[in-house]
């Protein structure tokens, strides 16, 4: 899931008829508004255990979403009464791109007084989470199988969310794919709308170029303030270390050639682009590792490959 997807696939919800028409005036179902989606469709095959769990529990724990065109879309005008869904009114935490659901489950176990919404397009991921939800008898978790920007715009009330988590979003390494990255100025606007004042957005990534992008997007957004301004700057910055220690020698499956004359040998192309002259990160602002974030297979893979993890926390003003 964290490796570079080969290429965006065909529109999940499109019909053969749509493809057949040369002059299709319908909106491209792969887009939400004018934005490409940040995921590619992957196999939805379930193991026997996950299939059984899905068949038994999805009706209870996976929220039914009216669709627009694509199978992962959310129909305009949809409203969900979360207090009714959970049977109570409690602080809402939204885990976006929750993968196998480890952080959602951990949050639900650690905070029985919170209600957690896991947003994921990948059925096996949601099914794996349901196995845990059933095993641990968690009443405070629901899954939504839909494109996260649409969930933020259409399913969540303004100012109604306490925390939004985005852990290890797909990195989309290639420059021409950067527009598919989930975290963007438009995404920050969407999160700003749903977070209550004082609510927080927690981000984590193992790719320095995405970390720098996230920090730039969030620092320049007027609705947010960094909870850890200036923290871990200079020699102690994970960014400085990645740049000087050459820790991202593979990007996707591709080895990265050192950029002679720009930075020291071994420095990541993903981090540097052509323009970084000073490898020292003078800005910092990195958060300590969020203790509510369990070590997932994605993070383990990153650490085993020698990469570092960047955490960021922003508070809604
Ligand atoms: C690299 S995985 C990380 C999973 C998990 N957060 C973790 O830390 O282990 C990213 C996940 O985000 C999901 N995803 C990507 N774009 C999404 C979107 N627009 N809406 C919902 N899920 C999305 C992918 O299907 C994938 O499971």
Automatic annotation (TrEMBL):
Keyword hit for Transcription regulation: no
Annotated binding of S-adenosyl-L-methionine, by residue: 95, 120, 147, 170
Pathway note: tRNA modification; N(7)-methylguanine-tRNA biosynthesis
Binding residues annotated for substrate, in chain numbering: 174, 206, 296-299
Catalysed reactions, semicolon-separated: guanosine(46) in tRNA + S-adenosyl-L-methionine = N(7)-methylguanosine(46) in tRNA + S-adenosyl-L-homocysteine
Annotated PROSITE patterns: SAM_MT_TRMB (PS51625)
A molecular function GO annotation: tRNA (guanine(46)-N7)-methyltransferase activity
Region described as Disordered: 1-37
Matches recorded under InterPro entries: SAM-dependent_MTases_sf, tRNA_(Gua-N-7)_MeTrfase_Trmb, tRNA_methyltr_TrmB_bact
EC number, UniProt record: 2.1.1.33
Keyword tags: Methyltransferase, S-adenosyl-L-methionine, Transferase, tRNA processing
Keyword Oxidoreductase: no
One Pfam match: Methyltransf_4
Listed HAMAP family: tRNA_methyltr_TrmB
Family matches, as NCBIfam families: tRNA (guanosine(46)-N7)-methyltransferase TrmB
PANTHER family: 3-DEOXY-D-MANNO-OCTULOSONIC-ACID TRANSFERASE/TRNA GUANINE-N 7 - -METHYLTRANSFERASE, PENTACOTRIPEPTIDE-REPEAT REGION OF PRORP DOMAIN-CONTAINING PROTEIN
Known role: Catalyzes the formation of N(7)-methylguanine at position 46 (m7G46) in tRNA.
Family note: Belongs to the class I-like SAM-binding methyltransferase superfamily. TrmB family.
Record protein name field: tRNA (guanine-N(7)-)-methyltransferase
Gene name linked to the record: trmB
